[in-house]
Design goal:
heterodimer, A: about 110 residues, mainly beta, four-stranded antiparallel β-sheet, B: about 110 residues, 11 strands
Amino acid sequence: AQTVTQSQPEMSVQEAETVTLSCTYDTSESDYYLFWYKQPPSRQMILVIRQEAYKQQNATENRFSVNFQKAAKSFSLKISDSQLGDAAMYFCAYNNNNDMRFGAGTRLTVKP
Amino acid sequence: NAGVTQTPKFQVLKTGQSMTLQCAQDMNHEYMSWYRQDPGMGLRLIHYSVGAGITDQGEVPNGYNVSRSTTEDFPLRLLSAAPSQTSVYFCASGVRAYQPQHFGDGTRLSIL
């Protein structure tokens, strides 16, 4: 079964600095999709960024970018110019066919 | 724009009781899914549906039933509640499983 591992239960970053959240996954598939979702204290799940495995180019959404290493099965999220509103739980997720697997999450704290 | 609507937001049950968690979306999405979120474990897929009349099991389906009679609605039924089913439940929808998912606000369910 596919598994998603987030090895950092908690991370902290100073406001305006850059932070990278790690994610690795285990799969024997070659075609799949990867996501990062954000869950603030409101509990709402919000999509941050999405990556198609067949695309070599790393996805970018404003201050958020990923480092997708397919051979290493690694999918890290970089947040640049961190803001107080970035404080949340961040979940890495893997999709193949109709199955979706989430990691256990990383709690990000942003210090003013 | 209602998006994905879950009801109720909170519920307390006694062991052995049954209940239905409601989920409705107004975006004409074909793919809908149910997750449970437990501390330290991220989200786990319970059941999913790729369209009206089609449902399938996810990672943790035992103790839960679903049906999809319309595109809009995807209820989750607990047949005989057990304390192990105490969790926060999320419903989500998307055009396809590999597309960004829209999540409801969640239902916090406690089983005594």
